[in-house]
Design goal:
This protein is of the alpha/beta class. It has eight helices and seven strands. It has a seven-stranded parallel sheet with strand order 3-2-1-4-5-6-7, with helices on both faces. One of its GO terms (molecular function) is oxidoreductase activity.
Length: 218
């Protein structure tokens, strides 16, 4: 029987690397990202279903859930960095902060709610990608870190409320991605971990199905 996963933010970075890893193991994939061109190319490469769109759009969330009526894994990987250059909290634009929470907190919860019936039926798993910025006091990272702290607590409570599921909130560590480059510069980002190596560790986690909880892949 083929396992099925939904992966958000799947056109690049960790989402793309995990999609490739799971596809290589025979998983059926429903992939989403905002950019349709890159996503369609990834889906064609992997034999996956591509549903481009914005995870903050309720209609898009419904389409994703409808595309996977039988579901074993939800990976909430799509994320927004927020305002760049990263500003201190004293001048963080509040409209931008609200938008950041919508993408990094509300959208993952909406997708969890939409897919819970299928995940309960399969006793499946949920991976919420977080960050060490959720707990570290890094200057300039207050907006992003606050959103990831909220996602961690959301995951924590969800794991208590859904004991038949596996819920993991995963800190992947610094990776050489466009998002990190936008935050710290391309040169520093190039020294970070390869997303493919992080995806391999994440795939091992998914396959071994440990108890729900926070996981650091650093």
């Amino acid at each position: 029987m083929t396992n099925t996963a939904i992966i958000t933010g799947a056109s690049r970075g960790l989402g793309l690397a995990l999609a490739r890893s799971l596809a290589g193991a025979g998983w059926s994939l429903v992939l989403t990202a905002r950019g349709s061109g890159d996503l369609e190319r990834v889906a064609a490469e992997l034999g996956a279903t591509a549903i481009p769109g914005d995870v903050t759009d309720p209609a898009h969330v419904r389409r994703l859930a409808e595309a996977a009526p039988e579901l074993d894994l939800l990976v909430n990987n799509a994320s927004d960095l927020g305002v760049t250059p990263l500003p201190p909290l004293s001048i963080y634009p509040l409209d931008a902060f609200r938008a950041l929470l919508e993408t990094n907190v509300t959208a993952p919860l909406a997708l969890v709610q939409a897919t819970l019936p299928a995940l309960r039926a399969s006793r499946g798993g949920i991976v919420n990608i977080t960050s060490d910025a959720a707990t570290g006091a890094y200057e300039g990272w207050g907006g992003y870190g606050a959103s990831k702290a909220a996602l961690e607590q959301l995951s924590n409570v969800l794991s208590a409320e859904e004991p038949d599921l596996r819920v993991w909130w995963v800190d992947p560590g610094e990776m050489n991605t466009r998002m990190l480059a936008d935050a710290v510069g391309a040169e520093e980002a190039a020294a970070a971990s390869d997303p493919a190596k992080v995806a391999a560790a994440l795939h091992d986690l998914i396959a071994s199905r440990p108890a729900s909880g926070k996981v650091s892949l650093q």
